[in-house]
């Protein structure tokens, strides 16, 4: 046996106390490190190489800012809020992540999936409060200023909802719900950072995330169809929203607005063509074509001068105020209503941000701190919630554009925020005549990447059938039930798949590779030689309570011997033989002589005298696993068959020692445990 290194016993109490003393101590250097860790910008900004980085950061910042404006206005439809709130969200998120983020490249701001999740909660609460979800009411005329916008809310209600007794219209209540939801999600993320719960993201596999994104994309697409063709149907709520919405669309298809249909067709053709050309010639373009901005500007001018709203009743964005609304603390009573909804929102927002940060950090050879990312995203939600903003996350499409246009640091995020600020202060009213169908086209075309996942299903299925099943289940539940339920179903189902895989793992009898000391699966490889009088059994999973029975059944099936049944059969024949001997009959119950009876005790002669269990794939044993090995050791010993263990890792050996597998003094350990299969086989051959 190999000698194990002695391990010093760790006094956990002393370790915990030492960590507490270190954490609770406060020195100037420690305080400085804490502040610089909490605001990473203080570390990298003084080292900023202006001549080398500034051009790429400014260019990428301008491009992202130009893309952000039309996307912010468009995604307000998903969130069920006015466009001004999306612009606020884009502005504050970029500034805060610049101060607190550790990734140099990710673009944090509004994200379609997060906007959808916010919009579903907002719609539900508006419906419960008695508001009409129809957002296609005629716009109120005004110059777009904050004062006129606040006066335009002529439909106000005296509400006593969740303890609030105030005059609050639909828009006021909607943003109140969104900010309360965002604040609670941010608090969850900060608490997860404090308690270092970032490991939660490990349970969201790539298949679950892809399936969730694809299912949510189908929901987003469905929600935009009514704007696309200009019909007025209520916004569906609850489970099965996708099916109900499509039913309402086909039932009201005759009311489609011809102007919106033509506009949508033109915009989609232009956007898709520009995207395809951009993808094909991206190596020749220094920066992506600002197609969305061009489409919005042209569509706004055509709508304004063609009077599409007045002549053809085409739905338009309406007045977008300029400036900033005074900050307001999110309502605590509303937080209680959305506390449960904020949890999946917080997890999804964090997971997408961290996964993108890690992906680009690996690509550009630097490191991020996942826990600090949790704090950064959390405060990107908490602080903006006081300024009428809603939840944010990193977005893949904008991050890819950012890196392709030369981004070096988060200075580019500040430049993007300045572009949004310019729109907020001066340009927002110019989008008054922008048709909603144009915004819907921008959203739908932005879903190309997620919807293309359907083309990858055959390749995914070829690589791994179980992961494909996880993707299909998650996608179907996210689309047909709801996004939150879909995410939960995906996580639970993927974990069940892992459990099932360990419950029914691969098992095999091994044969020897000729003229070598190596052994492999007899069913998978040709020209393997069987070892006389020795069976070698491999179990490719941890041995624990859930797969104990499968382990025993597989062992008995492959060795063609159940020791319990064999022992019971022998006892039965021995009992019958004794009864006949007492009667003085020299023939047994079978009519055979005593000598012949001995042969009948074993109808199938056992063709092995040693069983070698290959433990190389057994990563751990629980109490049931140890007891199972002790059980087969005892049962086979009764049949004069020795059980030898090979290739056990140290943790398995320790479990066996603690469970008393080798006896009290471990005296027989060297005859029961071997560090290779070949050593065990040689030992078995030497046995009489």
TrEMBL record:
InterPro entries tied to this protein: S04_transporter_CS, SLC26A/SulP_dom, SLC26A/SulP_fam, STAS_dom, STAS_dom_sf
Gene3D superfamilies, per the entry: STAS domain (3.30.750.24)
Topology of this chain in the membrane: Multi-pass membrane protein
Catalytic activity field: iodide(in) + chloride(out) = iodide(out) + chloride(in); oxalate(out) + 2 chloride(in) = oxalate(in) + 2 chloride(out); nitrate(in) + chloride(out) = nitrate(out) + chloride(in); oxalate(in) + sulfate(out) = oxalate(out) + sulfate(in)
Domain STAS: 524-684
Signal peptide: none
Keywords: Cell membrane, Glycoprotein, Membrane, Phosphoprotein, Transmembrane, Transmembrane helix, Transport
Similarity-based family: Belongs to the SLC26A/SulP transporter (TC 2.A.53) family.
Broad class of where this protein is predominantly found: membrane
KW S-adenosyl-L-methionine (keyword) present: no
Record localization: Apical cell membrane
Positions of transmembrane segments: 53-77, 106-122, 173-195, 207-229, 249-273, 334-354, 375-397, 409-427, 471-500
GO molecular function: secondary active sulfate transmembrane transporter activity
Name of the molecule in the record: Sulfate transporter
CDD domains in the cross-refs: STAS_SulP_like_sulfate_transporter
A GO CC term assigned to this protein in UniProt: apical plasma membrane
